[in-house]
Amino acid sequence: MENETTADKDSSDHPSNSELMASAKVMSEAVAGQETDTGKIAGAAADILDAAASYGIVDQKQGLGKYMDQAEEYLHKYETTHTTTTQTDADGNTTTTETTTTKPVDDDDK
For bias kind Low complexity, which ranges apply (predicted)? Predict the structure, then answer.
């Protein structure tokens, strides 16, 4: 069995270093209570899970790697179906709206 390094992996499917830093910032802001867009937070968490699985060279077919892959897929789906919009009017009143979009169930999701 060959040893696979991160340089050998196809990085096109994985977040770049700058995307990971942005995701880490979003997660940090969420923990501090500054970020409330659940879709954005889910996407950031998915990117961090993907990087942990990729750079940690976790087998995505079995064990912990399988669950990490499933969690990442779920979080990316959540990210694309949940958005939060915050609007502030001229008087300084803030309105936050969370929108949930549902998609038809695929055969793979059954």
Answer: 81-103
Contact 14, 53 (CB under 8 A): no
Instruction: State the burial class of residue 62 (Cβ atoms within 10 Å of its Cβ: 0-12, 13-18, 19+).
Output: exposed
Interhelix angle 38-55/17-31, nearest 10 degrees: 130
Residue 79, classified by CB atoms within 10 Å of its CB into exposed (0-12), middle (13-18) or buried (19+), is buried
Q: How many CB atoms lie within 10 A of CB 83?
A: 15
